[in-house]
Amino acid sequence: MIPRYALPEMTALWSDERRFATWLDVELAVCEVQAELGLIPAEAAADIRARAHFTVARIAEIEQTTRHDVIAFTTAVAEQIGPAARYLHFGLTSSDVVDTANAILMRDACDLLLRRLDALAEALRVRACEHKHTVMIGRTHGVHAEPTTFGLVLALYYADLQRNRRRLQQARHTVAVGKLSGAVGTFAHLDPEVEARVCARLGLRPDPISTQVIQRDRHAELLLTLALIGAGLEKIALEIRHLQRTEVREVREAFGAGQKGSSAMPHKRNPIVSEQLCGLARVLRANAQAALENIALWHERDISHSSVERIILPDSCILADYMLAKSTELITHLVVDAERMRANLDSLGGVTFSGSLLLALVQRGLTREAAYALVQRLALQAWDEGRDFLTLASQDAELQQRLTPDELRQQCDLAWQLRHVDKLFQRVFDAPTGEALPFGETHHQPGSPSGVAGRAELF
Q: Which of 78, 242, 302, 418 has the smallest number of Cβ neighbours within 10 A?
């Protein structure tokens, strides 16, 4: 059953109609190559090409008797062809057709997913540039740490996505292999030249060696890649869920006219898309585990993998497609509250500059242990008593012996702490594949001003 969240293009790719049509593409390519090599009459191949046809309903009807889908398929097609049908499926075993066709479907699914990845990457790039200098508090362990920008948060997700894009490109290459090597992979009934020519026609590479089936580590690589993509989307969604919490309220999912968050509480605006993404990522991971279980088969082949793949291949591709589309929509329409971000940053009265103050005191001659103890004492007092950290620091006699008021203010300069934001953006967005460039190695960044922003631009 096609999931209700499936999107049309990917759904069509994994439909019964498309699956059998791809099987037929393989069968026809084999017939035509065999005719070219003089293995079957040319007029038979032409007749098969002209007459070959099927209906899904007829295949299903025949399968009720044969209990074998490929035989049901070839029987249904042969009914349309006539005498030349004796050359259909000539020298092949079922897995020659099914595995080669699945390679085509997986390859084409990867192409659709790569387009989805690119759309999400562009949405992240646009929003990252928009919020390049939108200051917020960075959090470690869920606790205020040091200042960052929301643009850097989004740039990180963009870089993650580029790595997953490369993984998907590699997985596409890995699965795009066909095989026509027969029942145990020995080419007992066809020459390898047939396989090479058929694969070339179908846009595949011949699998260098196989048993009756293409080896399932190839399929597992794709499913693991989709699981990694899902985990990356979950990472984005989990952060949005945190930032939308009432106590934080720094971002929120767009809330449409007429939308409702709760049947009982009219005030609710819940992060439903983000929560959905976090849940669905679990399914992709589970399917990847099933793909790993399919790698080890008895001898040259058993059938234990086949039933599993009928679920996990279409479901994982359809699900990843949906998750990428929803993530793009989520990022594009995400509501960002820059004022709330700044208020949260300022809420502890400068405690987040404790690291800078620590280093300044060390530079002024204190041991690291002594400097840490001094700054921690002031920070804990600010936290426990709800007082302003910078005020406490400016009034502390021990600290006044080491730093002047102006020097103290310099250590609490947001512009200085975030002076490398432009360089980080250059490393992420100027690298063609998303890999970081070393500091100092820069190129022009489309859609973004060059140079380091001054304090007025930053804040």
A: 302
